[in-house]
């Protein structure tokens, strides 16, 4: 899942560090795809750092449920098939495109249907102390946290997730993601064709997309109840 879809599951939390943790694996991936951290079992003396770790673990759990769900498997495959004719001749792998496209479409639908507030998401991030974030990154084993902070500062400043309300920006986001691997992923005509396909697919999901959020919520609640029974 993408940033806003992860945020949906904890949109009512008041702990900004937990919120940050729920999107931090993807933020790090955007900042430097070569950085690999595994703080899952770490425990810090600072409760704020531990909140980031808890949010990180929530991210991993949500992704596990999402990527194994029939919803994801069905729609990422169908989007792959729908997009294949539009990207003929492109170096981009269709299965990769289908995977990312369904995640971005879900973010768009959450915004356009009022499922989350993008402003509140950014307010959470703005409330986090960079000192605490830096402490987490060093504790988790990151050698050069400045690489992350350079990206993170621009991410917060640009507020670009607001643009996901426009479907052509979903195409743009797809292109930017693909450019991490392929220098020139699409022609202008391919981008235009992709936008039309994504718009049609988004409309087809309008009345049913919340089913995946409901499904994952139920699984998270079941996990929580099982954990309570252990104590």
Features:
Acyl carrier protein phosphodiesterase, mainly alpha, single chain, 231 residues, globular
Write up what this structure looks like.
The chain has helices at residues 3-8, 16-31, 47-67, 70-83, 94-112, 118-127, 130-139, 145-158, 167-178, 188-205, 210-229. The chain has one domain (3-216). By secondary structure, the protein is mostly helical. The two termini are 31 Å apart. The chain contains 11 helices and no strands. This is Acyl carrier protein phosphodiesterase.
Shape: globular
Quaternary organization: single chain
**Low-confidence segments:** none
User: What fraction of residues sit in β-strands?
Assistant: under 5%
Overall average residue pLDDT = 95
Global structural class:
mainly alpha
